[in-house]
Write a structure and sequence with these properties.
The protein has 2 domains: about 45-250, no CATH class; about 260-620, Glycosyltransferase, CATH 1.50.10. It contains 20 helices and 17 strands. It has helices spanning about 5-35, 45-65, 120-140, 145-150, 165-175, 195-200, 205-215, 260-275, 300-315, 320-335, 355-375, 380-390, 420-435, 435-450, 470-480, 485-500, 525-545, 550-565, 580-585, 600-620, and strands at about 90-95, 105-110, 150-155, 160, 180-185, 190, 225-235, 245, 250, 285, 290-295, 335-340, 340-350, 355, 455, 460, 595-600.
Length: about 625
């Protein structure tokens, strides 16, 4: 063996060892989580859940009033699952009667070894509910308030002790919102049901650990930590009668139909209208868990959100939506600046940057306003905006993402993935109300570059981004110029959505099915909404082109996504733990384990669901 060959073999052996070690490190979190994963008890039937909630309400009422609760044994069948022996902790929480210290609602816990002789699940629920009711009485919460409250029951499985109680290790093994936590110190225990991780914003787990330590003696005490899974359910509301299973502090949808989607769109529009201030600016991000807005802002998202608010007004004719949209549109006009030396062009500026996407989405908003209000107020302004887009276009169709407006301008060197598609769609929509050939010619040139050249090198397609703005632009442009290139590339983008969409039949958790996969991270609601905007546009194109199989494929993807989207919108059924449910109603939370609502989360979902509603109407019901 030559020295060169020997050296090559050693090098390859080292490389293989390093790769296998790297693979092991990547798999380590999954291996550890699998070893430490708790198991939930068997799912109770709907009847069992209903009985359990009635048992809990009776016991809580008796404890609040200080009178012995009337026996329910003669009227309720507490056999079956409720007659079994609980494997883990049982928690009963009373939502809607006010919070107590540490922003935790009144609750009671039964656990084995807690000094009780309880032997059945029904008795455990009764004991935990009486504990919760007693806490309400201590806080002088009147029994009448319990009538409007909603009671939630968590039936826990066996507790699995964590190998370490450090925040870093727990972050590795805890599935936020699905795993409850138990803190142990001596003979004492403190419990956090699974949904509290989400409800209290403890998904980083530091807050959860501080709570457990505070209950067990103070911030400096040493505790052991255990995990448990639970079957959780809550009393219902008029729109969604109970009992309602709770998954990750959320109530999922039983079905998707016209009524559900209409209600979703209406409440989304009402949410946006509430969030427009007197100056025309939105509450940009609403932190529903803390009932406050932030001070950040984004011009593009303002424009896109105003576009969707006009869409909601066109659907429902709500004067409050129109009034709010008009204030938002006036603020948008105030961000327009003329291009020096070219009075026929205008740009929009935010800070030191002038973005192509701001003009693209601004066009969408003002075109939608003209359709809604039916006046020509912004016709000249839209022409000057479109002229700016044309001035940003190179001969090959490429659209510059940034504009150098003068001294002090911030002009990044890299171009945006999404701004060209936003500008393309703005031109196509403008052409729909102002059929000037130059708008169409620029849109065609941009579309051909984006579909054929942007992500190709040496004739090889390197990347297809999930660009919903471009999908919409191509699909709508195809109605005017039926170039097969536009159609085929739109379907390529749809395929990206298909490949990355989570499915229950492939093992996705029930509350994540229909969402877009992001590796190790939770699927987020905004990409789901934006991709559905692209899906419904591609569906319309497929129908026009007579592609029945394509249309059926896209519709299935769209309905799967819509279920995920609406399930993560704040509704009466799933807002039971919020400090201000009425304000949050209609907002779309960022992801299943978080509670922030940004205006573009609502915009994308509202617009996409309008297309889903049209599909449902055409087929006369639902999927």
């Amino acid at each position: 063996m030559t020295s060169a060959l020997r050296a090559a073999l050693v090098r390859h052996a080292k490389t293989g060892l390093m790769m296998s070690s790297g693979l092991s490190l990547l798999l380590l979190p999954f291996i550890v989580r699998a070893c430490q994963r708790p198991v939930a008890p068997s799912a109770p039937t709907r009847d069992d859940m209903a009985v359990a909630l009635r048992v809990a309400r009776t016991a809580a009422t008796g404890a609040i009033t200080g009178r012995e609760a009337a026996s329910d044994g003669s009227t309720l069948d507490t056999g079956g699952a409720l007659g079994g022996v609980p494997a883990g902790p049982v928690v009963v929480t009373i939502h809607g009667v006010g919070l107590v210290e540490r922003r935790v609602p009144p609750h009671g816990v039964w656990y084995r070894g807690g000094g009780s002789g309880v032997v059945t699940l029904a008795d455990a629920i009764r004991a935990a509910a009486a504990d919760a009711g007693a806490k309400c009485r201590e806080r002088r919460i009147a029994a009448e308030r319990l009538e409007a409250a909603r009671i939630k029951v968590d039936i826990g499985g066996e507790v699995v002790y964590a190998w370490s109680s450090s925040e870093g290790y727990l972050s590795l093994i805890v599935n936020p919102g699905l795993d409850g936590l138990v803190g142990f110190r001596g003979g004492e225990a403190a419990y956090i049901p699974p949904s509290w991780i989400v409800e209290r914003g403890w998904w980083r787990l530091g807050g959860a650990l501080r709570y457990l330590k505070a209950v067990l003696g103070g911030p400096d005490v040493d505790i052991e930590v255990g995990l448990f899974r639970a079957r959780s359910f809550i009393e219902g509301v008029p729109d969604e009668p109970g009992p309602l299973p709770v998954v990750r502090a959320n109530v999922l949808l039983d079905a998707l139909d016209i009524g559900v989607v209409q209600r979703s769109i209406r409440t989304a529009g009402e949410y946006l209208a509430r969030m427009v201030g007197p100056d025309g600016r939105y509450c940009y991000t609403y932190f529903a868990g803390r009932d406050r807005c932030d001070r950040d802002y984004n011009l593009l998202r303002h424009a896109g959100t105003t576009y969707s608010l006009y869409q909601a007004y066109r659907e429902f004719g709500d004067p409050d939506m129109l009034e709010a949209a008009e204030r938002a549109a006036q603020w948008l006009r105030g961000q327009v600046r003329p291009v020096t030396g070219h009075p026929d062009r205008v740009y929009m500026i935010e800070g030191k940057r002038a973005k192509l996407g701001a003009i693209g989405l601004g066009l969408l908003a003002l075109v939608e306003r003209q359709k809604a209000v039916e006046d020509d107020r912004d016709r000249e302004l839209m022409t000057r905006m479109a002229n700016f887009v044309l001035s940003q276009q190179r001969p090959n169709g490429f659209l510059e993402s940034w504009f150098d407006w003068g001294p002090g301008a911030d002009v990044p060197e890299t171009n945006s993935i999404y701004y060209p598609g936003e500008a393309l769609l703005g031109l196509v929509r403008l052409y729909g109300i102002d059929p000037e050939q130059r708008w169409l010619d620029a849109a065609v040139k941009a579309a051909r570059y984006l579909a054929r050249d942007r992500w190709r090198w040496g004739g090889i397609e390197l990347y297809v981004p999930p660009d919903a703005w471009l999908t919409q632009g191509l699909a709508e442009l195809h109605a005017y110029v039926p170039d097969p290139l536009f159609e085929d590339y739109a379907y390529e983008i749809v395929e990206v959505t298909d490949v990355t969409q989570l499915r229950a039949e492939e093992g996705a958790d029930p509350d994540l099915a229909g969402g877009p996969a992001f590796g190790l991270f939770m699927p987020t609601v905004t990409p789901a909404g934006s991709r559905n905007e692209g899906l419904v546009a591609a569906y319309r194109m497929a129908v026009r082109a007579g592609r029945q199989e394509k249309a059926a494929w896209i519709k299935d993807l769209s309905f799967r996504s819509a279920r995920f989207q609406v399930a993560h919108q704040f509704r009466a059924a799933n807002s039971f733990f919020l400090p201000n449910p009425a304000k949050a109603l209609g907002g779309f939370r960022s992801r299943p384990d978080k509670l922030d609502v940004r205006i573009d989360y609502v915009q994308h979902n509202l617009t996409g669901l309008l297309g889903v509603l049209q599909m449902l109407r055409e087929e006369g019901g639902g999927p």
